[in-house]
Design goal:
The chain is an alpha+beta fold. It has helices spanning 8-14, 25-45, 95-103, and strands spanning 2-6, 48-53, 61-66, 69-74, 83-90, 122-124. The strands form two sheets. The chain has a four-stranded antiparallel sheet. The protein has a two-stranded antiparallel ribbon with strand order 3-4.
Amino acid sequence: MIMMSGTQRDYDNLAGKPDNPVWSGEDVAALHAFMAAWNNALVESGEFVDAQGLSAPVLARRVELKDGVPVVTDGPYSETQEVLAGYTIVECESFDRATEIAAQLADTPHPANATLSHDWHVDVRPIAGSYEEL
């Protein structure tokens, strides 16, 4: 599973919500085109299994127990800024190949003047039971 992270600020920038938006419509279109081409290449290679983007953190809820009672907190959460923004599941010959696929996202387009709220990265983790454990 290739997991992409994001913050509420990232979602707001992509939606054009800040007072001084950094992402133009053309920038957002370039990002979408890049991701579509990346996904299509995986489909064509037969390595694509599933991919989903997740809604903005402001729409999330955290449920935890306090004194045995469920407590619901609406997001985003002050404890962490980054959340899982989306994922892609690939089925390929090796963990190294999955890492190569994920590395292609290092060149994801963004505006030259964008101030990223975190270093760009993706995480790659095998799904439990999907291959022989190390």
